[in-house]
Amino acid sequence: MSFYELVQKYREFPVEEFWGKVTDSQVEKIIAQDRLNTLDFLALLSEKAQNYLEPMAQKAHRLTVQNFGKVIFLYTPMYLSNYCANQCAYCGFSALNRMPRKKLSLSQVEEEARLIAATGLRHILILTGESRSKAPISYLKECVKILKKYFSSISIEIYPLETEEYRQLVDAGVDGLTIYQETYDELIYDRVHLKGPKKNYRFRLDAPERGARAGMRSVNIGALLGLGDWRKDAFFTGLHAHYLQNKYLDVEISVSLPRLRSYPGTIKEFKPYCQVNDKELVQFMLALRLFLPRCGITISTREAPDFRDNIIGLGVTKMSAGSVTAVGGRINRGKENNIPQFDILDERSVSEIREMILSKGYQPVFKDWHPIEVEVS
């Protein structure tokens, strides 16, 4: 069975009609339950449930501390290449965008790695535009070989791969996979992905499962909130995480909650389907925590400092810090043509994020895992 079959099943479900019938007593009963089913989760994403954010927050706090402790795991992204074969209507890396294209040399990878490691961070997420020819598996393996000298955990956010290709990267030292479905609405997905291999909805949808089968220690999924109806994308994201958690018990499953942000470049500004406000994003996070108490929740530097500060304790378990979204953004800081994929809102340094987390009574964690090298005789 593939997750696609569940998508098909719920695509026919009368979601608006269901949400229209959600009652106050139903929401109160769901919040009081020890375990939630998928329809309970769907009810907590309704407009009616927006009146119950405070009791949801109290329970989300308790469940998060119970399952993760008072800690926030930190990581940072490192962009290796911005070449892309896709034409996505909402992305600054789109092949339609006339911008300087770059790819780090191996010596530049090492230079950037040294700068990141000097901040104390030991978990890194490496990213590329979606171009197999410009950032092939062989190149990524060479980069990972260098990065292993500086980081204990290396995750990837690249184009979707076949299972055997993911296995090659796991063998090279990659332990985590991040891949966003962007939107679970297949019609909108087709509309915003104009050309390129990314138009293949099903191949991308099944990528997290191929990564899990290949031996990834952690898999992180998400929808780009604003591309489609955020409540429906939130529901399918939670459903997807639930499916992966139940099927791959040895894999850490996490969910990111990214909102669409503006991007520099020459392509026409994209108009989102909807704007997701802070209250709605918090509702998504709280509903997800109540539905999946052991699921990691990531909030990136796409969000503003005040918002990130205030959601600590409500369910988030992982944050990016000291982020730049340009290729070689740290070694080329201040130089021309250092164009990011999208604008970030929280530009604080790693040390500033660390101090903020401590001020909230939480422990910032720079490293929580290390691979064991096994010698083969």
UniProtKB/TrEMBL annotation:
InterPro entries according to UniProt: Aldolase_TIM, BATS_dom, Elp3/MiaA/NifB-like_rSAM, rSAM, rSAM_sf, ThiH, ThiH/NoCL/HydG-like
Name recorded for this polypeptide: Tyrosine lyase ThiH
Gene3D superfamilies according to UniProt: Aldolase class I
GO terms of molecular function: 4 iron, 4 sulfur cluster binding; iron ion binding; lyase activity
Required co-factors: [2Fe-2S] cluster; [4Fe-4S] cluster
Alphabetic keyword roster: 4Fe-4S, Iron, Iron-sulfur, Lyase, Metal-binding, S-adenosyl-L-methionine
Domain Radical SAM core: 70-289
Pfam families noted in UniProt: BATS (PF06968), Radical_SAM (PF04055)
Top-rank taxon: Bacteria
SMART domains xref list: BATS (SM00876), Elp3 (SM00729)
